[in-house]
Amino acid sequence: MLRSYKGITPTLEQGVYVDVSSVLVGDITIGRDSSIWPLVAARGDVNYIKIGERTNVQDGSVLHLTRASKMNPNGYPLIIGDDVTVGHKVMLHGCTLGNRILVGMGAIVMDNVTVEDDVIIGGGALIPPNKTLESGHLYVGSPAKKARPLNENELAFLKVSAQNYVQLKNEYLEECK
Predict the structure, then answer these.
(1) Cβ-proximal residues to 100 (8 Å cutoff; 6+ apart), any chain
(2) How far is the C-alpha of 16 from the C-alpha of 35, rounded, in Å?
(3) What Gene3D superfamilies does the record point to (predicted)?
(4) d(CA 23, CA 42)
């Protein structure tokens, strides 16, 4: 499940759970208490992936990045903050996600997108390249548009969702002993 590429192997901090059916390749760092669920594919081959603490990437998601080129000298890494829930079958490509974000099932977030803190991206949403999603809002549609501000319950749920997955991954780690 963890594979080297050009001599670089993924780095897992304390308390990380990676399902045995997932494949993580190359320059990937995963922060404390995060979890990678079944059939996730993450390739840190032409740039790097950094995943924060208490973040969960759910079943069937694809994580990748953009190679450096003459037009884009640094390429685009994939950076995911703390307390982020990445739903089932999400595709994240060369983008930056802040903290306390929920990415709904089947969403696609493309190159050079910045998602500020405290955002919900609705299921099936498409975030085209070079967009910024502002903190405190719900985004839905294809292409996604700002739908409305998040209410207090939704803002609180962002941390609850992340914490629920910390608890679940701890149960899975117990089973593995």
Answers:
(1) 81, 82, 83, 84, 117, 118, 155, 158, 159, 162
(2) 6
(3) Hexapeptide repeat proteins
(4) 6
For residue 70 the two structure tokens come to 């003459």
Q: Do the Cβ atoms of 81 and 55 come closer than 8 Å?
A: yes
* C-alpha count within 13 angstroms, C-beta hemisphere, residue 36: 30
Nearest alpha-carbon partner for 58 in 106, 25, 110 = 106
- The residue to which tokens 């997108």 are assigned: 113
**Do residues 20 and 1 touch, judged by C-beta distance below 8 A?**
yes
Instruction: Give residue-wise pLDDT tens across range 80-94.
Output: 999 999 999 999 999
Tokens of 92: 């994240």
Catalogue all structural domains in the chain, each as residue range(s) with its CATH number: 2-176 (2.160.10.10)
- For 25, the 3-state DSSP assignment is strand
Q: Structure pTM? A: 0.97
pLDDT for res 176: 85
Phi and psi torsions of 158, nearest 5°: -55, -45
Closest by Cα among 142, 124, 146, 122 to 134 = 146
Instruction: Tell me the torsion sign for CA atoms 93, 127, 19, 168.
Output: positive
